[in-house]
Amino acid sequence: MGSTTKFVAEFCDIIDSYGGRDKVMKALCYSAKLVAGYHLKRNPELAKRYATASSKISGARATLRLIDDIPMIQYALEYGLGENEPDRIMAILGVTANIVDLLYYPIEKICWLSEHKILNVKHADNWDNANSVFWVLSVYLNLMRTLRNFWLNQEKLNRSHQLCNPTSIDAKSLAKHRLELMSIARISLDFVHAVSTLPKGYLWGGKLSTFQVGSIGTLSACLGIYQIFAKRRLNK
Fold it and tell me: Carries keyword Membrane (predicted)?
């Protein structure tokens, strides 16, 4: 009973934060899409209900992202030219990712305003396509940064072993390194999903089924939630 109470308390702490709540909302959104895709031919009426639930949750997440550009601007200003990054490649990737994200958020706002008929946007489809392109670029750059950071950390571990001093790396650092590998898997799933939203004819744009998108999104969200729990325990 004690462990259950502890888990519930920890879960409540997680959903009390914006990032944690978004991860849980993402899991609910894509698990509903997964069920909708699974029942698409078996039970169309049930599939429709779950698809509606998924769409509503997705809309709620998009609405909450409307003010994300404010902390993004602050982060970009604090990041600067990446002076604190371990090498020049990480700095270039970081600055480029920040520029892409600063452009991505206003485009997403325009798409949201157009979707809800608040703003009369000409060529709305073009804006939606631009939104998908910037999402793909954002996820791709995030993946490249994570891969680069993982490689740099792996080099440090290798040097430590070559110096016959494996104990110089503590258990916490090793655990964080393994979590970075999980981040690579999670962001790779997000990249597959993001590319699938591109127009048909571009890579695998428009080729994934509802069930496949639901599966990818659910797995990515679950990995993200697990990482939040794991990082909290590591920082204790």
Answer: yes
